[in-house]
Design a protein that fits this description.
single chain, alpha+beta, 4 helices, 9 strands, 20% strand
Amino acid sequence: MFSLFRHALRRPRNFALAAAANSAAAFPAARHFADSRQGSDNPTKRDTGKASDMENKSEKVTVNKEELRKRLTPLQYQVTQEAGTERPFTGCYNKHYEKGVYQCIVCHQDLFSSDTKYDSGCGWPAFNDVLDKGKVTLHRDASIPGMVRTEVRCSRCSAHMGHVFDDGPPPKHRRFCINSASIDFVKSAAPSKADPPTASSKK
């Protein structure tokens, strides 16, 4: 009877030791899982190289203010560097409809296509889209009391372009209202004439 009682006392102790051993063996795996979760949840530890390239394909450039003052007109400098606005219906590209590309006047990055330009009647050049979403950056602009607008900047040099509104034509309903002073126009190359038929192509 005494031996049976001692055997019964040993069993809970052995069970507790076994449970502790199993917990110690499982702890490293649980800790490793937690560390991996922390690494994935920490933005500084994520591999975001490809995502960054997708969001902004333009390489940043540093602008020399003194050189810009010499190269740009006073209005171009005021608009692009001080977020100024030219007077409506005065810009050279307001009623301009040649085929080509509109570039940033500061860094010459292609921003808008003539295919997306339309006459909105607002007094500034209007486009319903950009060449690529990575070409511009959008910023909240509350400079006018009681009004919040969305500012458009060149993603490469941060030059002020204008503003974008949601009253444009379908399907996107966007109106990029851009200052003529902030852009330059590059005309599309004239299509080359077809090569004369060769002797082998004649019937």
